[in-house]
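Following up on my earlier thread - several people asked me to post the actual chain instead of describing it. Fair enough. Here it is, all 312 residues.
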Amino acid sequence: MLQELSARLSKIIEKKRLKEKLEQDLYTVEAELRDESARLASLGAQLKKEKVDVEKLEHLSVTALFYSVLGSREQQLERERQELLSAQLLYQKAKKQVAFLEQEKNNLSGQLDKLTGVESEYELLLSEKDNFLRQTNQTVAKELIEFSEQIANLNSELSEITEAITAGRTVILGLEQVIKSLESAGNWGAWDMLGGGLISTAIKHSRIDDARSSVDDVQKNISQFKRELADVRKSVDIQIDIGELASFADFFFDGLIVDWIVQSKIEDSLTQSQKAKSMIIRAVNELESLKMITESKRADLQEKRALLIEHT
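Reply from S.P.:
Thanks for posting it. Predicted structure:
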């Protein structure tokens, strides 16, 4: 009876902790989705405006005639086309992020549906535990159940820490791909500056496109990593600062969308990518250390519980 009750308590405690984690994740994702949806609407309006500006210059509008008289129509048209390109890329980026967050929201909601009734089950087990302890009046039984509950909580903490480590490693792999593409773009850019011609220019732009595509994935993975870290912080007192990463993707796009052919922009984005990678590596290393400490605590409790059972 005692071992069976302890096992059921351990299982329901882990389920309850998982439900709390998923509810917090869902709350965070819904907040991010609201912000990103508002940003998407704003970028959509900006995109329409940029299209109108380009059309005015491309056709015989008053604006086009004005710049023609000044002799700067082509220059102004090129500038407006760059702004249109910038607006299009930012809009596409936000649209992908909204779709990703909607998918995350649905996924989390689905997982939560499977855990409906966990709180009621937990309360019933607590009542059953209370009745059992009153009937047996055994100090040993109370200690064994307490050990089981503590081990269950540590199991939940280890699960959260492991998920954060996995999310962090995924970010690192994505950043390595970004860095690889930017390094290649930088090399071809240097060759281009020495007169490499159209081929080197085309290859450089292709590598930057690769980096930009990778950054889309990195942004999603950073969001996931931040959520997993928040879950760990709720259970464990740990100080891991990745606040600067929040604007990493925006910095990257701001640096490369309009002036994407400028060599210094490639170098700036490469530096930021390397800095972000170092930050994530430090965070993952701290999580690895925390995991070892938590595993040691769990092993100690498991040993104490085993000894108590042996000597009972």
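The first helix runs from residue 2 to 58. That should answer part of your original question.
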